[in-house]
Amino acid sequence: MSESPNPQWYCVHTKPKTEHLAAAGLAAFGEVETFCPRIRFQRSTPRGKVWFTEALFPSYFFARFDLASRYRAVKHANHVIGVVGFGGTPVPIPEQTLEELRAEMQGMEVREVSHGVNVGDTVEVAEGPMRGLKGIVESMTSGENRVKILLEFLGRQSLVEVPSSKLLSSRSPRDSFTDK
């Protein structure tokens, strides 16, 4: 007599930057539910501000499956390194933990986060003639539309007012989930 299926959530370790590919591949198997929370944010590049999408937990995602019948398929799926566990035994994750994470992600697999600037943040000017210069946010003016930043330029410090939309904070976009 075989055991009845008992699907539980597990954390799956993947090769770098392939979390969404591994999750999609496993979901296509059937009998495996996946949740790969990702964030979309802007970052400064030599071309200016560019949108990026990354896993909320780099190299990890969550899969709900029956350990007895699906473990080998999950462990040997494309892009998967293994299932997280202790002493070689996969450890299930409580359903409540995944429900809280889904709530934090506002029910989306890809959540756009803006990690705006705060007084005291180190920022980089992303657009305009001062692009690439770094400074410290001194104060917020007229709401969050404009900020005054202290820039060191040509050997002296200057207080400059800049639209906040032209700045990128040095804080990680993942900080949006811990700033409460």
Automatic annotation (TrEMBL):
UniProt xrefs under CDD domains: KOW_NusG
Pfam assignment, any one: NusG
Keywords of this entry: Transcription, Transcription antitermination, Transcription regulation
Keyword Transport (UniProt): no
Domain of life: Bacteria
Any single GO CC term annotated in Swiss-Prot or TrEMBL for this entry: cytosol
GO biological process, one term: transcription antitermination
PROSITE patterns registered for this protein in UniProt: RIBOSOMAL_L24
Molecular function (Gene Ontology), one example: structural constituent of ribosome
NusG-like N-terminal domain segment(s): 6-105
Protein's recorded name: Transcriptional antiterminator RfaH
Species for this entry: Roseimicrobium gellanilyticum
